[in-house]
Amino acid sequence: MVAARPWPWPCLLALLLLLAGGGQRPGAADSCSWRGSGLSWEPHSRAVEQVHLRCTEGSLEWMYPARALRVVLEPSLSSARHTTVCIKPASDFQGASIYVERAGQLHLVVSEAEGAQPHHVSCFSAHTPQRVALFLQASPQRDISRRMASFQHELLSNQSAAGPDFKKMALVEAMCRPCDNVELLMAICSSDFVVKGSIRNVSHDSENHMSQVDVSVQKVYRQKNRIFQQDETSGEWRGPIQTLLQCKVKKGGGVFLFTGNEHFGEAWLGCAPRFKDFMFIYRAARERGVNPCEFQLD
Asked: Do strands 148-157 and 82-89 pair parallel, antiparallel, or not at all (unpaired)?
């Protein structure tokens, strides 16, 4: 969890007073994402510009950061169960630090130095899930060289952010253990991706405590985004799946059913039984009428 490092009260008070003169910042926006530039702002204005994003996930690109930017995340009321916010800065994040507003104080979430670290993700609890305010403070610059403070954001439910690995990687539902029958049957209904395939290769990143499973796909039953794609040269369907290093995933033979969820454009492993084992479990559940959803059998 992000350590709370509040701003001094006089500085915060001055910034909040400036908000009275700020409005919705013009720029490229689709209510989920926003892109703008500090160079387009009035040079003598001291107002803190504001951006409103109304989706549970999206992105922001702030080119040439100047002064400050307030980003208000306002998901729809139907998403009120989302109570955890995760921020993933781009690999070239520069020029600003990110704070979250809580009870009249600003708490540092991502410093400029932390934002440049690969795979860095910061998560924090949202005390008011219907409205979360982030504050981007531009770093002092002596020149006009190109800088961009960009990040992706996701709002997660308590369930998806729970577990012992929340502090290390709050986005991972993988539990490093085989799913039981109930979890498996639910996984095929609710996962962002469900694919049948085999393991081509497994690579490990000890620095970031992650492993990547490269999958040769035989059939895509469902995927939220185009993570699993057809290779133009070979015609084979492939795709990478991420998991925790501590799960100690190894390359093995056979055909599996890979399930999981997508976060920040990456597939994260959930349940992954051998396909023949899954078919046995699913058919038995279907015969008893306890399968939570219909699954397309081969």
From this structure: antiparallel
Q: What is the pTM of this model?
A: 0.64
- Report the amino acid identity of residue 96: A
The tens digit of pLDDT for each residue in 219-255 reads 999 998 889 999 888 889 999 998 888 888 888 889 9
Cα 243–chain centre separation: 14
Q: SS3 for 210-261, per residue? A: EEEEEEEEEEEEEECCCCCEECCCCCCEEEEEEEEHHHCCCCCCCCEEEEEE
CA distance 296 to 219: 11
Answer yes or no: are the C-beta atoms of 185 and 285 closer than 8 Å: yes
Structure-token pair, residue 137 = 């403070």
For position 129, what pLDDT does the model report? Answer: 61
Cα dihedral 164, 264, 7, 143 in deg (nearest 10): 140
Cβ pair 54, 31 in contact under 8 A: yes
Give residue 21's pLDDT.
41
Query: In whole angstroms, what is the distance from residue 215 CA to residue 223 CA?
Result: 14
3-state secondary structure of 10: helix
Would you call 235 exposed, middle or buried from its count of C-beta atoms within 10 A (0-12, 13-18, 19+)?
exposed
How far is the C-alpha of 101 from the C-alpha of 257, rounded, in Å?
A: 42
Burial class (CB in 10 A: 0-12, 13-18, 19+), 159: exposed
Q: Distance between terminal CA atoms of the chain?
A: 43
CA pseudo-torsion sign 206, 184, 201, 91: negative
Tell me how far apart the alpha carbons of residues 167 and 124 are, in angstroms, rounded to a whole number. Answer: 10
Interval 137-195: pLDDT, tens = 988 877 767 788 999 998 876 544 443 333 334 444 445 778 889 989 999 998 999 99
Q: Would you state the pLDDT for residue 202?
A: 95
